[in-house]
Design goal:
The protein is α/β, with parallel strands linked by helices. It has 14 helices and twelve strands. Bound molecules: iron/sulfur cluster.
């Protein structure tokens, strides 16, 4: 039986003609699609969430190429090589990216359910001017030999586009390694192609096991959350998989207080735990999506901290070549002396608590 998700992948919306079935494609969008030689496309499901007439629709801006991608004043050349420490002396397969001693990112596929215009791996998956060899067996062998690795992040591209059989094999192989304690999967599919969460997938990666599987998805705007998303997340949780969100802070998409708060509240309503908000990384051709660095911390202060449920508080981080650097709002401790701390809350009210000597 042909599953809905494979039909969606087969019918990816990646030409102006196909896109015109969902929206009135603007002249600028047409020109960008015709001018830029990059990969683009979306699942028909995600395209159906686009606003028909508004080119500023947050779904449209994430998916449809823009001429602004030709501007690159602040993006770093060879960003991914720098970010993923690919030029270091340690010999690793192309599929293994390493920033920490005990965990690695394992890239297993180069295709995606949608091609995000703000992707930090744009050079690899969208522009495709970085060629790497993703040999899964070679990556598995490297992980098996490195007993210090306790946590593997399976990434891409979008790993959930692999067949149930391939995913099942990958997870089983990792679970056989005595040093592996947890497996994470980074995938946008619960958001952009929720039909992928099938019984077959649940069987391949879910179920009770000593080594848990966590999925971190990427949802950047409340408009991306539908009844289908809610059901897909519930299905994942019902087979023992926790789902977290890693949003990207995007100028003109989610960088205002109301949208930012609604996004995080809505995620919790469908059982997704907000985990990170990433600063939009300085990969090339994404200047138009990037805010000042402090913006994310300001949004946590003004939209979330104290303003809504504690579970809706992600950590705001800058992902760099030396790991993630958290940047949280810094307004709480107003003064500190030998006797007491003076503290400020989200409303600007003050209080004092005793300073405990060591
Ligand atoms: S789904 Fe992930 S890897 Fe693919 S383009 Fe989007 S952000 Fe990049």
């Amino acid at each position: 039986m042909i599953e809905e998700w494979t039909e969606q992948v087969k019918n990816q919306v990646n030409t102006i003609e196909k896109l015109a079935k969902y929206i009135n494609v603007s002249d600028d969008e047409k020109e960008a699609i015709n001018t830029l030689k990059t990969k683009w496309g979306t699942s028909p499901y995600f395209a159906s969430l686009m606003d028909k007439d508004d080119p500023d629709c947050p779904i449209r801006k994430q998916v449809i190429p823009s001429l602004k991608e030709q501007v690159n004043e602040y993006g770093m050349k060879n960003y991914l090589v720098w970010k993923e420490n690919r030029a270091t002396e340690e010999i690793r397969p192309d599929s293994i990216a390493r920033q920490y001693h005990d965990r690695v990112a394992f890239t297993v596929v180069q295709v995606c359910g949608i091609y995000c215009r703000h992707c930090f791996r744009k050079e690899l998956v969208v522009d495709q001017n970085l060629q790497l060899n993703f040999d899964v067996e070679e990556g598995l062998a490297w992980i098996a030999e490195h007993s210090e690795i306790r946590d593997v992040l399976i990434t891409g591209g979008d790993p959930l586009l692999l067949s149930d059989e391939k995913l099942g094999y990958l997870i089983a192989k990792l679970r056989e390694m005595p040093h592996i304690e947890m497996i994470r999967i980074g995938s946008r599919l619960p958001i952009v192609l929720p039909h992928r969460i099938t019984d077959g997938l649940k069987k391949a990666i879910g179920g009770y096991h000593r080594i848990p599987v966590w999925i971190n998805t990427q949802c950047n705007h409340p408009k991306e959350i539908t009844e289908e998303t809610a059901k897909a997340v519930y299905e994942l949780m019902s087979c023992g998989i926790n789902v977290g969100n890693q949003a990207v802070l995007l100028k003109g998409i989610n960088d205002d207080v109301d949208t930012f708060r609604e996004l995080h509240q809505k995620l919790l309503r469908i059982r997704i735990r907000p985990y990170y908000v990433f600063y939009c990384e300085p990969a090339p051709g994404m200047d138009h999506f990037r805010t000042p660095v402090e913006k994310g911390a300001e949004l946590i202060r003004d939209a979330l901290r104290g303003h809504t449920t504690g579970l809706a508080q992600p950590m705001y981080v800058l992902a760099t070549n030396i790991g993630k650097i958290p940047l949280m709002p810094d307004y709480y401790i107003v003064d500190k002396n030998k006797k007491e701390y003076t503290l400020r809350n989200y409303k600007g009210e003050f209080t004092k608590i005793p300073n405990m000597p060591e």
